[in-house]
Design goal:
2 domains, 6 helices, 2 strands, Diphtheria Toxin Repressor, domain 2, mainly alpha, 123 residues, 5% strand, Arc Repressor Mutant, subunit A
């Protein structure tokens, strides 16, 4: 199944939250994103049905391998693109917002070339 941008965003959010806290629940995602609980519930169930996440009896969400792979990819793109944009003088807030849009549409080839280029200058 090809994930939509919204699915990628949810997986990235679960990844980010899991780095900050011991457990992630749907309410945590709703609070973090500002999305409604019904919207989060629907998205989480779609991700679960497609094998990207699992949810235990207590409602704790865990990224499955496929979900973790997508989440790490999107997070890496977001982080690197934000750093790049800040490096050319864009404010942190604008850089992060723009990176959030770019991370979903940039090709793998272009991202890898940007990463290689930046790694020559950023250590």
């Amino acid at each position: 199944m090809q994930l939509l941008e919204s699915g990628e965003m949810y997986l990235e959010t679960i990844f980010v939250l899991s780095q900050k806290q011991d457990v992630v629940r749907s309410i945590d995602i709703a609070n973090y994103t500002g999305y409604s609980k019904p919207s989060v519930s629907r998205a989480v169930n779609l991700l679960k049905d497609n094998g990207y996440i699992s949810i235990n009896d207590d409602g704790y969400i865990t990224l499955e391998n496929s979900g973790l792979e997508v989440a790490k990819t999107i997070y890496e793109r977001h982080t690197l693109l934000t750093k790049m944009l800040c490096g050319i003088g864009v404010s942190k807030e604008t850089a992060s917002a723009d990176a959030c849009k770019m991370e979903h549409v940039i090709s793998d080839e272009t991202f890898e070339r940007i990463k290689e280029h930046l790694n020559k200058f950023i250590k």
